[in-house]
Write a structure and sequence with these properties.
about 40% helix; Rossmann fold; 7-stranded mixed beta sheet; about 15% strand; alpha/beta; 11 helices; Four Helix Bundle (Hemerythrin (Met), subunit A); binds 5-S-methyl-1-O-phosphono-5-thio-D-ribulose
Length: about 350
């Protein structure tokens, strides 16, 4: 099965990405040539979604390494460690960012004894490409596991964009939908618009429609009514970071969706690769929550929508407690409660 989108591509000495800020009105690409370009693209939301941020960060280190192969080991190492530090400072909640940068740091360290920037650079490039390919495989695997939960005629609800655009191509929460569609199943998807940056209305709706999947956008505040009316059979969301107890961070508003799902008796599933699980964090309250520019709330497409002088507060994520989660779909299987024990069982 081919991935529905290709949001990132390694081009040997540079990286091509879909500039997600343009969607859905225009389809435009960006070429990134340095780690600083990639850090800017991540911070500025040209690319986003935890798994894709991780892939882009690994490619950023690789692109930087390729650039500095003719320097001494000390200079090479210092440049790359600085790049890793800069990339780490882009999006604090995205667990996959730190997971991928950790991998790059280990590859770099393993080449210190030989001291060859050339060899380290080749290894970093190979590892970045491997992270990308592994994510494709992981997405498809989660899709094939999650599809078993979808029944013919089901109505699903999702929040934010945990689709192909947030990963190497198949997505996490949307992967079971792509597999169901490929198998010819009939189902319907409600996409929460996901204020303030509208990842649901702009991105989820764009990629599902493009794939021929029946998608309807609803206001974030409408999802509670839909669930209480029995109009939703199950919820699939992605995650930016899952703790060892099963608490998880995802786009702001996810916690409310989970509470409504519980109140209405609607099963609520998280779909995420094992690389999103931070086994070193136990409690959800320990996940760092990114706070973004208030202009994302006070303006829509550059037009001010709030009164001058009124401040806005813009936390980008919230944390949903594990007790609201019916199951966590990973590439290693569908994990059910009790999460502390069952997640420990899939720890790499
Ligand atoms: O701020 P974003 O757009 O990067 O937030 C993305 C999400 O919250 C996704 O649901 C999450 O990263 C999972 S993506 C497979």
């Amino acid at each position: 099965m081919e991935p529905p989108v290709k949001p990132i591509e390694w081009l040997g000495d540079r990286i091509r990405i879909i500039d997600q800020r343009c969607l859905p009105l225009k389809e435009c690409d960006l070429t990134l040539e340095t780690a600083a370009d990639v850090a800017g693209a991540i911070k500025g939301m040209a690319l986003r979604g935890a798994p894709l941020i991780g892939i882009a960060a690994a490619m950023a280190v690789a692109v930087e390494a390729r650039h500095w192969t003719s320097s001494t080991w000390d200079e090479f190492e210092a440049r790359l460690l600085a790049a890793i530090e800069m990339l780490s400072a882009t999006r604090p909640t995205a667990g996959n960012l730190f997971w991928a940068l950790d991998r790059s740091r280990k590859v770099l360290e393993s080449h210190k004894p030989g001291g060859s920037p050339e060899a380290a650079s080749s290894a970093l490039i190979a590892d970045a490409i491997a992270i990308y390919s592994e994510d494709l495989e992981t997405g498809l695997r989660m899709g094939r596991i999650g599809v078993d939960l979808i029944r013919e005629g089901s109505t699903l609800l999702t929040h934010c964009n945990a689709g192909g655009l947030a990963t190497s191509g198949f997505g996490t929460a949307l992967a079971p939908m792509y597999v169901a569609h490929q198998r010819g199943m009939n189902f319907k998807v409600y996409a929460d618009e996901t204020r303030p940056l509208l990842q649901g209305a702009r991105l989820t709706a764009w990629e599902l429609k493009r794939a021929g999947i029946d998608v309807t956008v609803i206001c974030d505040s409408a999802c509670h009514l839909m669930m209480s009316r029995g109009a939703v059979d199950m919820v699939f969301v992605g995650s930016d970071r899952i703790t060892s107890s099963g608490d998880f961070a995802n786009k702001i508003g996810t916690y409310g969706v989970a509470i409504s799902a519980r109140a209405a008796g609607v099963p609520f599933y998280v779909v995420a690769p094992v690389s999103t699980i931070d086994f070193d964090l136990e409690k959800g309250e320990d996940i760092p929550i990114e706070e973004r520019d208030s202009a994302e709330v006070t303006e829509i497409s550059g037009v001010k929508v709030t009164p001058r002088g009124v401040p806005a507060y813009n936390p980008a994520f919230d944390v949903t407690p594990a007790e609201l989660v019916s199951g966590i779909i990973t590439e290693k299987g569908l994990i059910r409660p009790p999460y502390p024990e069952n997640l420990a069982g899939i720890r790499p």
